[in-house]
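Why run this: before we spend reagent on co-expression, it is cheaper to look at a predicted model of the complex and decide which construct boundaries make sense. The entries below are exactly what would go into the expression plan.
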Amino acid sequence: MATMTVIEAVRSTLDEEMARDDRIFLLGEDVEAGGVFRATDGLHAKYGERVIDSPLAESSIIGISIGAAHYGLRPVAEIQFADFIHSGFDQLCSEASRWSYRTNGDSFLPMVVRAPWGGGVHGGQHHSQSIEAYYSHMPGIKVVAPAFPADFRSLLKASILDPNPVLFLEHKRIYRLIKQDVDNAPAETQLSRARITRPGADLTIIAYGFMLHESLSAAETLAGEGIDCMVVDLLTLNPLDTETILESAKATGKVLVVHEDTLTGGLGGEISAIIAEHAFEYLDAPIRRIAGPDVPAMPYHHAMEEFFMPNREKIAAAARDLAAY
Amino acid sequence: MTTVTMPQLGESVTEGTILAWLKQPGDPIALDDSLCEIETEKVTAELPSPYEGVMGEILVPQGETVDVGAALCTVVEGAAGAAAPSANGHQSSTARASGWSGGPMSIPPDEDKKAPAPAGAPAVEATAPPEADPREPAQAAARTSTKPDQRQRFYSPAVMRLAQEHSVDLAVIRGTGVGGRVTRKDVDAAISGAGTVAPAPAVESGPQSAARAASPAQSAAAYTVVPLTPTRRTIAENLKRSNLEAPQAWTMVEADVTGLVRLRTREKEAFLRQEGVELTLLPYFTLAVCETLREFPMLNARWEGEELRHYGALDIGIAVASAHGLVVPVIHGAGDLNISGLAKRIVDLAQRAQTRKLRLEDIEGGTFTVNNTGSFGSIASKPIVNYPQVGIVTMERVVKRAVVRDEDAIAVRSMVNVCLSFDHRALDGVEAGGFLAALKRRLEAIA
Amino acid sequence: MAATRTPKTRSKVTIDDYLLSEHQLEEMYYYMLLARRLNERMLAMNRQGRAPFVIAGAGQEAAQVGAAMALRKGEDYVAPYYRDLGVNLVLGMTAREAMLNLLGKRDDPNGHGKQMPAHWGHRERKVVTQSSVVTTQFLHATGIALAAKLRKDPVVVLTSCGEGSTSKGDFHESLNFAAVHKLPVIFFVENNGYAITESTEKSLPVENVADRARGYGIQSAVVDGMDCVAVYQTVRPAVDQARRGGGPFLIEARCYRLWPHSSDDDDTRYRPKKELDEWIKKDPLTLFRGRVESDGIFPKEDLDEIEQRVAEEVRDAAQWAMMQPDPEPEDALTFVYKELD
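The model came back. Tokens follow.
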């Protein structure tokens, strides 16, 4: 198996899980033909009616998955682009999130909704969105956004096994960009656990998804300048691993939160608040956030897209300031 | 490109805080456009631009406190207007025209090594020596960039916590953060002994820092370092100066104000109805002080540098303990006011002192100061002369006491102590004693 | 009841014409009556200040009971809507549970005090938990039908809604998906004439809700929803057909909302009195009782006996439920996520 890309990690995990448990089935647009990102390539041939093309109706993809999960199956739904998930917002947030709560656990929904997200792929306004903040605001749903192939594998397995609805976010930019020897890499097997991916003493960078890689790259550059950055991979965005967030913030007293989602109401605000509430006396500098600007969506032209996206240079510059503070 | 500097807003003011920038780099600036809002311990005011042009760089961020004379921002002259006058000519004319009595708002490039110009007594003459301490020029120049000082004084939560947990004296740690700020890592290093517990950094000159450096970091005494507010620092500076420079003597008399108390009791309701303010004893006291000062003009004076100036007008300072610190607003022309006029002015100034609405002219040019220490319940106090004035008088608390009167009868009377501190350079005990005796007579005559 | 029945030779219609057993007919009347009397008691408790909110199904009992009786209890799934007290009673909900639900008591098996009254859900009875957002349950039902089909389980799903809900996207997405995949789901629309204040013509540009099914290639039927027997006789074959793999079916039961929308609504503001009076004459309870009495299926005394039994059951349920424990305030924090042991 050894070295694989993110998309190979997703595909191989779906394959293994479907082979392990015949209650697992896939539902989504174009999944029978392998999906637009080829995440389900070959699975229809192998699993037949357990790989189901859905009509172009996102509410139904999620609502039908709810019913099937309630019945006892393990649906893994695919929303073709995370940008299109919002017509299923009602089903996720008014229904799926409350299934256990309103039945006191009598009923529950072991279902996964996979959604390719994020920018930097010339996808314009509706193929680049970061949607995590909307759904991370909803208790009852778990939101996962790994960065490395090994974590994609272990956390997709964990999401399928979880008895709760999980929104599994796959950053499009890293589908084929990031490769890893998954047999010898660390792999988080539990949801709601963050990982200190890189230890460091001078400041803490907290990120997820594609931005985790940009943050690691910035940390590498800064190491050459004598600035020692700790980098935390959140992995699960809801519920957050507050313990690791606080531990990493306390260790350096200087925190930089990075996401490509827009600034206002983004997860950076929540993470900052957690740190300010519970680690105030450990702070040695104001908490900094790097995020997309507060515009409705990522613009199409590459110049504007580049301007919108945080990247390793912007992260390094902010980290330098913070280190010097 | 011209530099706009921190004006001296009020006499003896040494620093100011930028509350808000009202112009941003690139904004067109017309003459007298408000550039920023400045707060000192005495006033809050907007800084009207001495120049016309385009806003250049902001050199002092909002919220920072800098010394008088420190560069605040730059203005690119003439970019917006056709006939902008030259920097120097314009600067001086603006300084006069806008009526600021403080130092220049800008230091033209060729003059920026000079010490700030004389501080603003109402009638500054070319020959007047600078109010600033003569020892200071070099230091003042060194402080042109005062940001490092500010940063050094700021301790982050992490730094405060570590210092308390390990009983570390932060004052002796050399900061490696922005502007010399002491960082968490600096404290960690000091704790582990790897440290930067250093001789006082070059920027921290002067006796205080030397003294602080002498106290070992391992000191067992636990204490909390209270950051000094601008107001606190200025009060400290002024009082220290008064004590260092003016040899002060103190004397006290007691006065029988039974008649005054009765008069006030009789009048107060009607007074409130007619005048709309409460009638207290203070206006009567102030009126009596004014009348007595006319008799003893050597106490209505200021010791300015090497000159002793006696003033004709009675501009009486009233000490006010506000929530923001001690302020001494001035009743200009107090000698022309009656009880009603004094009462209203006192209420007005006290209220504005509490709400920080005092204008520059409200706090300048006092010639003598009255302090109502009785309001704290005190029956005797030793005030410090409000430098460069030469005298300050207190009205202590009015108390009922058994008093032996002329006819050897014992009577219950309302008694008050009146205390005077004076600059012995300016006058002697005989004048001071005469002043107090005359004041006592006046107070006792009121019925 | 059979023991007390007196055959009436003069009847033209016999029990055989009902295509239902005597026991089923008795059940029909019992459940319809229980639903109505519970709703009446609930409204009284609301007016007494004992229950903050009541939303009822008066006028729709025949449709609800007739449809539910066509299902296999405990095997077939139901994704009902909030007026479906009658459906839930048929599937096993007791009068006491209905009252616990009204009062939001700790032991309400539907919502445990976390849901408003009339938001049903009971896993063992195969009643799917529901929200206040209308028609979302259509997709859940479709998903259950898909799952059952994948597992080759002989399960049928019945989901219901009012006619107002048929304007929502989830209605159309459900019909489309179920038709594409020939799923065993019955879409049961209780057309009661009103969506709160909006009469049918404000949301329905076609004569029947059933007409909407045609666009999806789904078989449909319109039935008199005030006639419990007719409803049963329409739903039952559709259920059987679905179970045999015949695909989805849409049934529109024409009934009438005899009461205001809820305890908070004043229907006199928008509903003509004359219209209401006309429909009161077709009250499903009087209709059923009159018919079985005149057809000689049950003697009056038997029906009176049912009335008395139901009245006693409702009185007991209300008294009992009021004495039951409330949830602890901190229960608000429980079961946000399901934990597996």
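The beta strands of chain C are 77-79, 157-162, 185-191, 194-195, 198-199, 219-224, 249-254. The longest helix of chain C spans residues 22-47. Bring this page to Monday's planning discussion.
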